């Protein structure tokens, strides 16, 4: 059994104590991918680091992406070669070294509607693979391949091939985004970072011009604290403008929110060996294999409502169904939709005048680091895939006035669970025999916990009922709910059903049946009273209902009004 540090209630209490005492080198605001990446980068350079997140880890955009670790084929068309190359290098690094247990290759078909597309798209995909092969790290995934019409019909029998001129198959990678964030946070904590969730920054501490820390509120303990730090890195995603407002004066970054939604349908509704990517008027449509499901996304529209609970409207869902149905022999409809989520892209905008709304699709996905006042670094934009580069750049900026500090080493810091993953995978048959779990279940656990699978198996060994499937979400084990609380920082039912597992988007009832059994498993570990347990279940059911109602609404405004009826539980 490993001695890996757990994110649990004691760790949170300990982190808050350390944050309030003494001076940190770097305090990071925001527990999305960029924030946790910055915390890991800084702490592994030998700095004293804290991180505060106002809600759960990855509760913002970083649990709501398309979950692709990719170069972004479409950015090639925009001639954004540097961005694509950098992202492809990060893809290779994550898949082959940093998180081989979490990142996996996905084959995509790019259907060709016109004969002239074959040389055009073929050249683009060849360039894409070429960039990955000549990058700093291994490419890791197979090369692209031309597919002709008959072969396409065999590979994807449910696709309308009669008007197609074949396809090109290429590979990208995917990851459970929320799990990646939690794993990076845990790796940072394991290296000594003080990570506290449900802790909201409410203001900045100033000495003259300089930011010397933040005032924050521990939302669970209902107490205010001051956290002093030589530098604060703000990685607040679409909340960047709000945090900038706390320092007053001239803002340096203008971050807009662009909404993208996804729907989930059962795997058997589309028979295909590969996912798909096709162009739409504004962007691209992805059909992505995801365990026993397909993820279909995404949209790209400006969002001016609640940042914490972006809502998908009926119009958004209709848009996706309309586009995917152009590809399919047997069209999908609303009854096929198992799960839906909406996320907000933090898009950097050139500074603009008040009241102007711009087209969001054309804004840059690249990141920017700014330094509006001494002691404060802002980082925003970018992609999930390139979090490590953003984090490195932000920390490089933050330490400019420090005495000699080592350069970033995160390209050599495998995330927790990476170590032991290959060995445990080779031992999967033996693990299945010794644990009594089906080999498919062992594979599922390896793909979520990697080398830390031993910790989950130890829970089951001590309490065999935990080796049973979770009622209402049988593709997860009961042990995974408990482990989410004891090792992965989950504090509420929502954290477990929406982020540590993806029950909320992977079951037709959106986790309603699983809610009570999961809450009962959590209650013991978190010391909930009966009333708290009921409150958690009730809150979760209200959240599901609010989301369902919002998805029946034609406009964003009505969808937002329906969704905000179920606020967060703290
Ligand atoms: C629909 C969609 C699809 C996408 N698909 C992909 C993809 O497939 N691949 C890819 O590489 N990228 C993708 N992206 C982009 C990627 O998801 C984002 O760039 C990334 O998740 C942003 O991370 P972040 O850390 O900047 O923001 P967030 O994840 O939003 O994190 C910011 C955090 O700051 C916290 N915070 C805010 N204010 C405070 C405060 N006052 N105190 C404490 N905490 C605070 C918030 O609660 C939040 O958790 C996609 C984005 C969207 C929306």
TrEMBL record:
GO cellular component: glycerol-3-phosphate dehydrogenase (FAD) complex
Cofactor: FAD
Stretches with biased composition (Basic and acidic residues): 560-570
Annotated ranges, domain FAD dependent oxidoreductase: 25-387
Listed GO biological process terms: glycerol metabolic process; glycerol-3-phosphate catabolic process
Localisation per UniProt entry: Cytoplasm
Annotated spans, Disordered: 548-570
Enzymatic reactions: a quinone + sn-glycerol 3-phosphate = dihydroxyacetone phosphate + a quinol
Molecular functions (GO terms): glycerol-3-phosphate dehydrogenase (quinone) activity
Keyword Flavoprotein tagged: yes
Keywords: Cytoplasm, FAD, Flavoprotein, Glycerol metabolism, Oxidoreductase
Domain Alpha-glycerophosphate oxidase C-terminal, residue spans: 408-532
E.C. number: 1.1.5.3
InterPro entries reported in the protein's UniProt record: DAO_C (IPR031656), DAO_C_sf (IPR038299), FAD-dep_OxRdtase (IPR006076), FAD/NAD-bd_sf (IPR036188), G3P_DH_FAD-dep (IPR000447)
Domain of life, per lineage: Bacteria
Signal peptide: none
Enzyme class: oxidoreductase
Stated family: Belongs to the FAD-dependent glycerol-3-phosphate dehydrogenase family.
PANTHER family tied to this protein: GLYCEROL-3-PHOSPHATE DEHYDROGENASE (PTHR11985), GLYCEROL-3-PHOSPHATE DEHYDROGENASE 2 (PTHR11985:SF31)
Protein name: Glycerol-3-phosphate dehydrogenase
């Amino acid at each position: 059994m490993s001695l890996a540090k757990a994110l649990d209630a004691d760790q949170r209490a300990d982190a808050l104590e350390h944050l309030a005492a003494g001076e940190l080198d770097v305090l990071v605001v925001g527990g999305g991918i960029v924030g946790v990446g910055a915390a890991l980068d800084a702490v592994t350079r030998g700095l004293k680091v804290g991180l505060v997140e106002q809600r759960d880890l990855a509760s913002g955009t970083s649990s709501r992406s398309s979950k692709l670790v990719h170069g972004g084929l479409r950015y090639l068309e925009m001639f954004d070669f540097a961005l694509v190359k950098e992202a492809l290098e990060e893809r290779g690094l994550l898949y082959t070294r940093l998180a081989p247990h979490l990142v996996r290759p996905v084959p995509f078909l790019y259907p060709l509607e016109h004969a002239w597309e074959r040389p055009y798209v073929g050249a683009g995909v060849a360039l894409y693979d070429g960039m990955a092969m000549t990058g700093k790290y291994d490419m890791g995934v197979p090369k692209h391949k031309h597919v002709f019409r008959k072969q396409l019909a065999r590979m994807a029998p449910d696709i309308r091939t009669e008007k197609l001129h074949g396809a090109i198959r290429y590979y990208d990678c995917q990851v459970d985004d929320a799990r990646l964030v939690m794993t990076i946070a845990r790796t940072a904590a394991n290296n000594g970072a003080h990570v506290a969730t449900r802790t909201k920054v409410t203001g900045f501490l100033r000495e003259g011009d300089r930011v010397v820390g933040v005032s924050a509120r521990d939302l669970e303990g209902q107490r205010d604290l001051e956290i002093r730090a030589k530098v604060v890195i703000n990685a607040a995603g679409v909340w960047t403008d709000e945090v900038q407002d706390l320092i007053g004066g001239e803002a340096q970054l203008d971050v807009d929110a662009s909404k993208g939604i996804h729907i989930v349908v059962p795997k058997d509704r589309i028979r295909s060996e590969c996912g798909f990517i096709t162009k739409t008027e504004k962007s691209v449509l992805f059909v992505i294999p995801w365990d026993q499901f397909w993820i279909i996304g995404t949209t790209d529209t400006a969002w001016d409502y609640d940042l914490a609970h972006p809502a998908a409207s009926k119009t958004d869902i209709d848009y996706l169904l309309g586009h995917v149905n152009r590809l399919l022999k047997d069209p999908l409809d609303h009854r096929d939709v198992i799960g839906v989520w909406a996320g907000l892209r933090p898009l950097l905008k050139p500074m603009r005048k008040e009241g102007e709304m711009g087209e969001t699709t054309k804004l840059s996905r690249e990141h920017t680091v700014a330094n509006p006042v001494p002691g404060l670094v802002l980082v925003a934009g970018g992609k999930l895939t390139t979090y490590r580069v953003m984090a490195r750049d932000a920390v490089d900026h933050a330490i400019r006035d420090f005495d000699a500090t080592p350069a970033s080493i995160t390209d050599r810091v495998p995330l927790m669970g990476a170590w032991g993953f290959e060995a445990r995978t080779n031992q999967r048959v033996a693990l299945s025999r010794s644990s009594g779990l089906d080999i498919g279940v062992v594979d599922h656990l390896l793909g979520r916990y990697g080398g830390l699978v031993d910790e989950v198996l130890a829970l089951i060994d001590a309490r065999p009922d935990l080796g049973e499937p979770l009622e209402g979400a049988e593709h997860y084990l009961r042990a995974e709910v408990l482990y989410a609380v004891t090792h992965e920082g989950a504090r509420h039912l929502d954290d477990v059903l929406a982020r540590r597992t993806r029950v909320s988007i992977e079951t037709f009832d959106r986790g309603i049946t699983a809610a009570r059994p999961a809450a009962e498993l959590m209650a013991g570990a978190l010391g909930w009273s009966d009333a708290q347990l009921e409150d958690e279940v009730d809150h979760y059911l209200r959240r599901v209902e609010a989301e369902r109602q919002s998805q029946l609404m034609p406009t964003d405004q009505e969808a937002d009004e329906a969704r905000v009826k179920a606020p967060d539980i703290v």
